[in-house]
Each structure stands twice: as structure tokens, then as C-alpha cells.
């Protein structure tokens, strides 16, 4: 459903990539899509990474188990002038909401890369740029939530997974209505409702080895250095904080 009468434009960059051994060439065009709502009155601050309330939890997931409020809002600062908020609802996905709330609270998403973004589908992030932190959370899975009747609509935020009961830290935001994901235990927990400016996200395509985008395995193992050296133009989450 559209909230209010305003329209939000999400502008993302489509990059066609051609491999020539180790060389990559790119052709860039722009495409526009609409998300449910906009708010030009959001603060224009560019926030530094948050000081974690419990930094030890970055290396020990068992220390990040607080119960989330019934509703909470997360504000994301994204490279290339993106600032948006996501309103989250625990009743939509209680286990997922608790995990997401704790990850934001400890600063997990600060300085993480949008390593997978596919045209007319979604953008995905949530692997730490610190290999030690990424390794600590790689197997810290939570069980699935039952579908509460909330669909993967355009602008909805959902945990990624690799099968039943495998959600850890990776999340995605739908570029369009992806109702087919509802039947695969992809349970939304937040809705992007406010953006100060159009969010510009470089399209990576599918990740290696299936496509030209970054390898999740390499990002897990090598951290942000891998992205900086091989994919220097990929967008990142500068900070994610609770309001």
C-alpha cells in the first residue's frame, strides 16, 4: 500500500560488466524505479559509524540477544548521497526483528558493502568488512519465522538465507514486488518509508562465480580489502543506527 500521496524515486545504476582475464570494463546507464514514500525533510547529516553499545558482541553473537521493541526505526546512511529510514515491526517476524535490532545496536552494518544488487530485483548487504567479525557471525543462524501475511513488496526489507533456518546477518531490500519469495520463507520485517534524496545504488549483477559481482566467499574471507581492490565503485552502508 502507498503511504500518503508522495512518491519516492529510487535511482540505481545499471552496470554491464565484461571480463577480460583480470580486466573489467563497464558501461553505465541510469534507470528509475518508484518506492512507496519520500520525505525531503530528513536530516542531511552524514553520520560517522556508531559507537557500539556492546562492542564485544561483534565477536560473540551470544552477547547480542536482546528482545526488540514492537516497533523501531533504523536510519541508514549510504555512500553517494543516500539517506533512508526503515520502519520495523516485530510482529511481522519476531526472530528476524530481534536479530536485526541487535545487529544495528552493536554497529554491525557500519561500513558494509552492497555486494549484490540485481536490476528489477533487490539490493543485498550484511557481510562485515572485518573478516574476524564476519567469521564470528557466519554460522550464527536463527530459525525461520512463520509468514505473518506480509509480502516482499517494493521497498520492504527482508533477511536473506541459504535454506531453512539459515538466516544470519545478510539482508536485502526489494526493488519491486517479489511475491514469489514469500513461499520460500523470506519474511519481511521492515518497510523503507522515508528517504531524503534518491538512493543511488550501483548494480553489481549476480555474484561470482555465477556473475560479474563480488564473491561472498571472498568477502567473508578477505573483508573490505577485497572490495576496495577488485570493486572500488561498489556502494556501501556508511552507518545504520536506531532512532
Characterise this structure.
This protein is an alpha+beta fold. It is built from 4 helices and 12 strands; from the N terminus they run E-E-E-E-H-E-E-E-H-E-E-E-E-H-H-E. The strands form 2 sheets. Strands 5-12-3-4-10-8-9-7-6 form a 9-stranded antiparallel β-sheet, with helices on one face. Strands 2-1-11 form a 3-stranded mixed β-sheet, with no helix packed on it. A hairpin with a 2-residue loop joins strand 1 and strand 2. The longest helix has 12 residues. It is globular. The N terminus is likely disordered.
Q: Return residue spans where pLDDT drops below 50 for at least 5 consecutive residues.
A: 1-38, 44-50
Order of helices and strands: EEEEHEEEHEEEEHHE
The largest sheet is: 9 strands, antiparallel
Terminal Cα span? 24 Å
Number of strands: 12
In which order are the strands of the major sheet placed?
Answer: 5-12-3-4-10-8-9-7-6
Summarize the structure in short.
By secondary structure, the protein is an alpha+beta fold.
